[in-house]
Structure formats: structure tokens, C-alpha cells
Write a structure and sequence with these properties.
341 residues, alpha/beta, TIM Barrel, five-stranded parallel β-sheet, three-stranded parallel β-sheet, 14 helices, 8 strands
Length: 341
Amino acid sequence: MTLVIDCHGHYTTAPAPHNDWRDAQKAAFKAGHPPPPYPDIPDDLIRESIEANQLRLIRERGADMTIFSPRASAMAHHVGDETVSIEWSRRCNDLIARAVALYPETFIGVCQLPQSPAADLAGSIRELERCVNELGFVGCNLNPDPGGGHFNHPPLTDRYWYPFYEKMVELDVPAMVHVSGSCNPGLHATGAFYIAADTVAFMQFLEGDLFRDFPQLRFIIPHGGGAVPYHWGRYRGLADMLKKPALDSHVMRNVYFDTCVYHQPGVDLLFEVINHRNILFGSEMVGAVRGIDPETGHYFDDTKRYIEALNLTPEIRHAVFEGNARRVFPRLDAQLKERGK
């Protein structure tokens, strides 16, 4: 029996005291004061926030497990300084760990990193180590543009990132390439910034030779890979023009796309263009698009329905719903095996 593992879930419904503390932390930084103590959030409040939302939808839609991380749009690495980001990331990751502990059969953790535009990656390396080694997390979300929508950071192939990649390889964890909130008024966060960053990240991988230096690195580019599948011929042609190897060997041994594409034709295209070995089931439910599609009567982000509508072999269906996630997240696979799954 195939497990249905959603590779892309965020705690978008975190309890109000957690979000209120974040507002107070930002206000304190602006005023030059230390932040207030973090509140004592009871387990019942966490249960209430999850059972009415993510857990209910997981059960209604027939999934089994979600790889769960803090709310992406709230990472806001451009806010404050590195000290602010470190404390906020730790609070968010600890909250994820508590949610996982309450529902260990349903959720498994992926961490937010305390990236900050003016900082190096030493703090992010420490937090990744803490979350993997102490909290049992299986991956991380890596923001390629911590400045919040201006793309001033070095490309993902630059040596600036190498110390972090070395730690990823050492810990054997993948990263989802995921930006956060936009402070650029010309880039709507979820409609423009997210999709643009996904596309930019893929092109950076194409232009560079990162995977020659790090053949074991694994990245998930979310939201169906941004614009990449739709323009696959363009990227194949650019690889040829830039004298790079074919994409299958140059990029796609290390890069994966999820299925956070919110209509049937988009998912159809994803599977027509991209090898199923590079596709992981994901929904990002209770995320960017939360409403019901008036054309279908179903939630836009009920992406499992789109996959089930495809004429896939049992082997491909198993790979997309379970096998690929276990291969890309070896620590997830190990934990499931410990449970006899």
C-alpha cells in the first residue's frame, strides 16, 4: 500500500500568541528594546490550530503524512538583523517540533533558517544542525533571496553558499528553495515573487556547475518548478547555447519539482514534460491559494485529485506519492522504516 506523503506543508495556522510575539519582537527591534519573553503556548492551542485545518484536510483528502515547516511568508529574513532572525527561527522550529510530537504519524519537520541579508551562513548552519540532530527534522527551507524581492544575493551556485551545502551533504538532507515575504512593491509575494524565484533558481543551476562540486546535493523547487516546465524547450535550448550538458544529467539528477500547481492542465503539463522520478507530491494546503475553484467545486490546492485524474501506472503513482519523497529525504525514509513502514 502506498503512503501519500505531501512534501510541502507549512504551519500557516500557528496559534495567535506565537504571531503576537513576532509582532512584539519586530516592534521591540524598531524601538531599540529587547523582545518580550516568548509566551507559554499550551498543547491544546496547538491541537486546535492543526486539527481544524491541516489535519482535517489531510484526512478528508486521503493523505497520510505532511513534511511540515514554518510559514514561508512569515520567515521574513529581511526584517530586523541576524539576531532577530535567529530567535524567530528557533521559536518557529521549536513550534514545528511540538506539532510533530503531538502528531508523529502525520507530520515530520523541516526547518526555517535564520538567514539575514547582511549575515553569513554560520547561524543557518548551526540551526540546521540543531534541528536535524536534536529535533529530528529531515530537511530545510533555503531562501535564495533573503532581502525580500530584490535579488541582491549571490546566485545559488556561488561559493557564498558552499559552507551550507557542505553541511547539507554531511547531514544528508535536502533543501526546498523557498523565498519568503516580498518587500518589493512590484513583486506580489505568492503570485510573482515565489514563481519568479523558483524559475530564477533553476536557471542559476543551469548556468553553473554546482552539482559537479556537490553531486549529492538535492533541491526541491516548489510550485511545480515555477515557469520551468512550461518553458522546458527554452531551458534545453539555453543549456545547448551555453555549452552545458543535457539537463537530464546537468541539473535533473539533483533537482526535483513538487505538484503545487492548482489546476488540472498545469499538472497534466508537469507530468508530460518532467520525468516522474523528479516529481514529488505536494499541496501547500492552507497556503497561498485557499479557496474553492468555482469551475470544479473543489479546493484549488487539493492537488491529489489532479494526480489521481492522470493515467499513471501503479509504479509511477507510488513514486510520486511516496517513493520519490523517501529517496529525496533519506532521514524521512529512515524514520518510516523504524516504524515498520
